[in-house]
Design goal:
216 residues; mainly beta; Immunoglobulin-like; 2 domains; nine-stranded antiparallel beta sheet; four-stranded mixed beta sheet; 1 helix; 16 strands
Amino acid sequence: MLSLVAAIAYTGCKKKQDTVSTLVTVSYPIITINGSQYVSIHVGGTFTPPTATAVDTFYKEKMVVVTDLGTLDNTTPGLYTVVYSAKNHYGFVGTANLYVAVTDISDSLDLSGWYIRSVSPPNINRAAHYTKLARGLFMTDNVGGVDTTDPTTGARISAAFAVLSPTTIDFGTQLTSGGTLSTYSSSLSLVPMDTTVAYALNLGGFGSSTRTFKKQ
């Protein structure tokens, strides 16, 4: 009888130990791409994804990096996103993006500089700065053209875009600080002393009107 009681007690204790939960600290792998995150290739050109490393600094763990080319098509002009991802042993996933412009536009084209969004009445604070990242590939630091002196009008959001021809640009589909962004009705005008970029945004909170930016 005593042996039976002892066995039951031992079993009960052991079961309790097996169900003890473990508090897990949320930590995501940090991915480092070996090279630039902004690449330009000619239509029909070769693209070899650069290698990348992933480290979880909290758990001191190195992970294998998986590369997803997504919809990348080197025969069709456009801006494409290549996604790198890695998962630690708790299942937390870290990601990093690489942007590939497929275009035959000349490297001499440079849209870098300040642009003012065309609104009525005119507002010089609705400015965006364009930076050249690679041949035919640029970054705007204010894709929505929001009022930079009034944070209540919306957050400044950066986005990359590719120039496909003297009249065509493409933002592709990309993840920004404001969510997933895409555009439509996009156009480019390279008239001397009157360069303009225009597009309508698919991005929460920005409406559907076409936004036109004129180079200063």
